[in-house]
From TrEMBL:
GO molecular function: hydrolase activity
Keyword Signal: yes
Coiled-coil ranges per UniProt: none
InterPro entries linked to this entry: AB_hydrolase_fold, Esterase_phb, Plant_Biomass_Hydrol_Est
UniProt keyword annotation of Signal present: yes
GO CC annotations on file: extracellular region
Organism: Nocardia arthritidis
Protein name, entry field: Prolyl oligopeptidase family serine peptidase
Length: 384
C-alpha cells in the first residue's frame, strides 16, 4: 500500500464561492457518464418505454423503466413518491446524525489528498468492524455535513467504526468520484489507492478487525464502491453499491475477475436501485448485479444462483417508506451472497434522501445487518 502522511484533524476545507445548490450534480457533469444522465430541460419525453425483465421468473422481475425521465415525468414521479413519504414519516422518531459526533481528517498519499469524516462508536473500538461509506456528488460542507453522516446511529447500535472519504472539487467539478476514469478504477492507482489508504490506516491505527471491513456508497459513491470491491477484494469483505453502475461500465464479469487477479473471490453485495432513476437508470443497476453474479461464479464456480432464491415485497409496515421489492440470492452453501432492492416510486434524489434521512433508518439497518453477516474469505471462495 502506498505510504501516507499521518492523519490530521481539520475544521473546514477551503472552498470556492458559494453557488446555487444542484440536486443532480451527476447531470451537471454528465460528460463523465455517457448516455446515463437525463436532460431536465427537455420537457417532451416522460419516459421512453417499460418492460418486464423476465416472464419466466415473475416473482423476481420488477417492472423495468428504461428511461431518461425528464422534466415532466420527473415531477410526476417525485409527486407520487412524496405522497408515500408523507404518510410513512408521520410520527417518525428515528435519530438524526449528531453534527458533533465526528472529526474531519486528512489523508495523503502519492495519488493525492482527501479529507474524510470519522465516527467512533462508544467504548473500546479495538477489533471492531469498519464501514467506509462514499457519498455521491455533493459538497458535504456546503450542503449540510450531518446529512451525509446517516450511519452514525447504526455505528453506535451495532458497534462499527465509520468513515466517509470526501471527494475534492479539484478532482471533479461536480464533487463526484471518478470511477469511469481509467486512472481511477484500478488497484493502487488514483482515487482507489487513496480510499484504500484511508481504510488501511484506520485498521492499523485503531487495531480494527481486518476480516470485517466493508464499503458502500450511493450514486457516484456507489459506482466507486464497485471499483473498490473489484480492485481490493482482499480488503473489503462485502459491499453495498446503491444507484451504482457496473465496473468500467461493462456487463462483463471477466472485467472484475481480471482486476481482482490472484485475489479473486466472490464478494457479497447489497444492491439498491430506484425504479424511476433518471441519473443511474434502472437497467444499469440490473446490469451491475448481473456483472457481479457472473464475477462471483467465475471466482468460485456455482457460488451464486443466477436467479433469486426468494423475493419479498416490503414497505411501511416493515419500516421502509417506499414499496420495495427485495430479491435474495442464497448460495448453495447456505449464506446470502446478494440482495437487490428495487425502490418503486423513487427517482435519484428520493433514493439519496432515503439513504440520508431518518426515515431511511430501517433500510440502513438492513444494509448493515447484511454486510456485518459476512467476513473475509480466502481467494476463490464464497461466504460458505
Amino acid at each position: 500500500m502506498t505510504p501516507a502522511t499521518p492523519p490530521t484533524t481539520s475544521s473546514r476545507r477551503s472552498r470556492p464561492p458559494s453557488r446555487t445548490p444542484n440536486t443532480d450534480r451527476c447531470c451537471e457533469n454528465s460528460s463523465a457518464i455517457p448516455r446515463m444522465c437525463s436532460t431536465p430541460s427537455n420537457t417532451r419525453a416522460i419516459l421512453l418505454h417499460s418492460e418486464v425483465i423476465s416472464q419466466r421468473h415473475p416473482a423476481s422481475a420488477p417492472i423495468v423503466r428504461r428511461c431518461f425521465v425528464r422534466a415532466t415525468g420527473h415531477r410526476i414521479v417525485l409527486g407520487l413518491a412524496a405522497t408515500v413519504f408523507a404518510s410513512a414519516m408521520v410520527g417518525s422518531t428515528a435519530p438524526r446524525a449528531n453534527a458533533d459526533a465526528y472529526v474531519e481528517r486528512v489523508y495523503t498519499n502519492p495519488a493525492g489528498t482527501r479529507h474524510y469524516y470519522l465516527h467512533l462508536p462508544p467504548g473500546d473500538v479495538a477489533h471492531k468492524p469498519l464501514m467506509i461509506f462514499l457519498p455521491g456528488c455533493i459538497d458535504p460542507v456546503e450542503e449540510n455535513r450531518p446529512a451525509v453522516l446517516p450511519l452514525i446511529p447504526q455505528s453506535d447500535r451495532m458497534g462499527f467504526v465509520l468513515a466517509y472519504p470526501l471527494q475534492d472539487q479539484a478532482a471533479n467539478p461536480g464533487w463526484c468520484w471518478n470511477p469511469w476514469n481509467p486512472d481511477d478504477n484500478q488497484r493502487d492507482r488514483g482515487e482507489p489507492s487513496i480510499i484504500a489508504g484511508i481504510t488501511t490506516s484506520l485498521i492499523d491505527e485503531f487495531k480494527l478487525d481486518k476480516a470485517r471491513v466493508y464499503i458502500g456508497g450511493y450514486s457516484a459513491g456507489g459506482a466507486m464502491t464497485t471499483v473498490m470491491a473489484a480492485a481490493y477484494p482482499d480488503l473489503y469483505a462485502a459491499m453495498a453499491p446503491m444507484a451504482a453502475t457496473p465496473y468500467r461500465l461493462t456487463g462483463d464479469g471477466e472485467a472484475i475477475v481480471s482486476e481482482m487477479g490472484p485475489r479473486a473471490r466472490a464478494v457479497p453485495g447489497f444492491f439498491m436501485q430506484n425504479l424511476f432513476d433518471e441519473a443511474s437508470i434502472y437497467p444499469v443497476g440490473r446490469v451491475n448485479l448481473s456483472q457481479w453474479l457472473q464475477a462471483d461464479n467465475l471466482a468460485d464456480p456455482g457460488s451464486v444462483p443466477p436467479q433469486p432464491t426468494s423475493t419479498q415485497l416490503i414497505g411501511p409496515p416493515q419500516g421502509i417508506p417506499i414499496p420495495t421489492v427485495v430479491e435474495h440470492y442464497q448460495s448453495p452453501a447456505g449464506c446470502e451472497m446478494a440482495q437487490f432492492w428495487t425502490l418503486t416510486l423513487s427517482e435519484h434524489q428520493i433514493g439519496a434522501l432515503l439513504v440520508q434521512q431518518p426515515w431511511g433508518d430501517q433500510m440502513r439497518d438492513d444494509m448493515m445487518n447484511f454486510l456485518l453477516s459476512h467476513s473475509m474469505t480466502q481467494p476463490h471462495r464464497s461466504c460458505g
